[in-house]
Amino acid sequence: MDKPVRRHIVVSAVNVRKGGTLTVLRDCLGYLSTRKDLRVTALVHREDLCRFEGISYIEIPWSAKGWCRRLWCEYVTMGKISRQIGPVNLWLSLHDTTPRVRAARQAVYCHTSFPFMKVRGRDFRMDPKIPLFAWFTKYAYRWNVRRNRRLIVQQQWMREGLSRLTRFPAEQIIVAPPAFRNPSLPEVPVAVPPLFFFPSTPDCHKNFELACRAAQMLEEKLGAGRFRLLLTVGGDENRYARWLRRRWGHIDSIRFGGFLSKEALYRTYAEASCLVFPSRSETWGLPVSEFAPTGRPMILADLPYARESAAGHPCCAFVPPEDAAALAALMEEIVCGRPEHFAPVPPVRSAAPYAPSWDDVFNCLLEDEDSAAR
User: Fold this and answer.
1) Would the pTM count as exceeding 0.85?
2) What is the dihedral of CA 55, 56, 57, 58, to 10 degrees?
3) 217 Cβ partners below 8 Å, 6+ apart?
4) Torsion angle of C-alpha atoms 83, 87, 90, 94, degrees rounded to 10
5) Which secondary-structure segment (H or E) carries 28?
6) Per-residue pLDDT of the chain in tens (374 residues, 90 and over written 9)
7) Do residues 150 and 253 both lie within one domain?
8) For residues 241 and 165, what is the distance between their CA atoms, to the nearest angstrom?
9) Are residues 147 and 13 in the same domain?
10) Domain of 91, in residue numbers
11) How many CB atoms are located within 10 Å of the residue 281 CB?
12) Beta partners for residue 195, in sequence order
């Protein structure tokens, strides 16, 4: 008896090398490696970043050496590859753009929230790549988007925003929240005086300056020694970090702690009195999910991503991303032990299609392929 022909799935992720996008790639391929009924080909930057048994790899390291090469790879090279390795039942792009390929069905995982960020003039001075990337992605999402049967996002707000931006039907956009395991935090006493913790990378859209201005205001009002604000910025990583250190390095209450190992990060979560995270643009907001199991207060940007990431948390306050005085007032409530403006965050219910696991994601994508076959 002839063996049944396995459906062929291609996952393209040639520019994925680090951070949350690499975690998504590894989780996706880890799941697909368990599906013996599928033939899987992965187009990646390097195989050793995401190696799993049962998956064929094609390395394209040159694609990451500039946007011109990336576009050539997406719209020329991948088309040639699709013809060489075909037929392809499903082509899943894990990095925002829709390649021109020969496949029965296409889908795109949309990570980037930059198209929805309000760009500031200072962003061009600190790191012009970020506002330029925000502008570029706004158009990249639209290019060839109608070739896709599905788009995949992590949050309900991004489904709504992406549908408006691209005019892609919202009912064809899958909400697939990332899976998180609660970190194992050490049992240590909460810091005295109160410790405010702002963990993130030193990128200009993270909005560290808001926290620094607020800490300066609060120190001027209450005096030094009443609280500490710890930033995971060393002060020499890039132009933005150097500017932060120059402007606020003399403030006694601010600590420029630099990069923390995972162990040090989890210990600081356990010690912190309050998480401060006013980032102006996030696909999810990983520190929010990592700190949430403590049940302690969080002060977050009053933006849709933060409200969705903190859904269900018992003690949150939200601050406009431009209002340092409002942030200082909320920090003062924590220092004085009177969190009057903190409250539980209501849960968020995502409409269908909703896929809390990769099994659900691919069931949805392959159902589309099955329906087309019928």
Assistant:
1) yes
2) -150
3) 324, 325, 328
4) -30
5) helix 19-32
6) 445 678 999 999 998 888 778 889 999 999 999 999 999 999 999 999 999 999 999 999 998 888 788 889 989 999 999 999 989 999 999 988 899 999 999 999 998 899 999 999 888 999 998 888 888 888 888 888 999 999 999 999 999 999 999 999 999 999 999 887 778 888 888 999 999 999 999 999 999 999 999 999 999 999 999 999 999 999 999 999 999 999 999 999 999 999 999 999 999 999 999 999 999 999 898 899 999 999 999 999 999 999 999 999 999 999 999 999 999 999 999 999 999 999 999 988 888 999 999 999 999 999 855 555 44
7) no
8) 32
9) yes
10) 7-177+352-373
11) 23
12) 228
Same domain, 173 and 319: no
CATH of the domain at 234: 3.40.50.2000
Strand arrangement of the beta sheet that strand 38-44 belongs to: 55-59, 38-44, 7-13, 90-93, 105-109, 150-153, 173-175
Does residue 2 lie in a domain region? no
Amino acid identity of residue 74, one-letter, is E
Residue 188 lies in a domain: no
Handedness of CA 291, 212, 304, 21 (dihedral sign): negative
List C-alpha distances in Å: 149 to 329, 330, 366. 47, 45, 11
The packing angle between helices 324-335 and 208-222, to 10°, is 50
**What are 64's two structure tokens?**
């990451």
- The DSSP output letter for 73 is I
Domain count, the chain: 2
The CB density around residue 328, as the number of other CB atoms within 10 Å, is 22
Structure-token pair, residue 269: 């979560």
3-state secondary structure of 183: coil
Shared-domain flag, residues 156 and 74: yes
Residue 231 and residue 283 in one domain: yes
Two tokens, residue 264: 């040090």
- Which residue shows structure tokens 């080909």? 41
Q: Are 116 and 281 in contact (CB under 8 A)?
A: yes
Check whether residue 58 and residue 153 sit in a common domain: yes
